[in-house]
Amino acid sequence: MPKNEDGTASEYKNPDGSTAEIQVIYDPSTNQYIPEITAGLVPSTVSGQLVVKPNELLNLQDFLNNWNPSWAKELIYYHPERC
């Protein structure tokens, strides 16, 4: 889960400061979303597309495949050398 440097909850942000979203596609033949998302989650619809927040992706590799350097700020809290 993304956090601010003080440990409070945060969201992954795009470079313009808007909340980051990842497009997903529903596959009715498997009843799953691609990329896979957290069980029980219902994606939001934005401009006719299904989207989830980056931390709602099920697999780390999907998170990394969609990585945006602007998200690094929300991960500083977890860095072992954080002061």
What's the layout of helices and strands?
Blueprint: E1 22-27, E2 32-34, E3 44-46, E4 49-52, H1 60-65
Antiparallel strand pairs: 1-2, 1-4, 3-4
Sum up the structure in keywords:
single chain, 83 residues, mainly beta, 7% helix, 19% strand, elongated
What can you tell me about this protein's structure?
- With 83 residues, this protein is mainly β.
- It contains 1 helix and 4 strands.
- The protein is elongated.
User: Quick one: biggest sheet?
Assistant: 4 strands, antiparallel
How many strand elements?
4
What value does the average pLDDT take?
91
The succession of helices and strands, N to C, reads EEEEH
Query: What oligomeric assembly is this protein in?
Result: single chain
Spatial strand arrangement across the major sheet: 2-1-4-3
Low-confidence stretches: none
Helix content: under 10%
Distance between the termini: 19 Å
Assess the beta-strand content as a share of residues.
15-25%
Shape field: elongated
The structure class reads: mainly beta
**What's the Cα radius of gyration?**
14 Å
Helical element count?
1
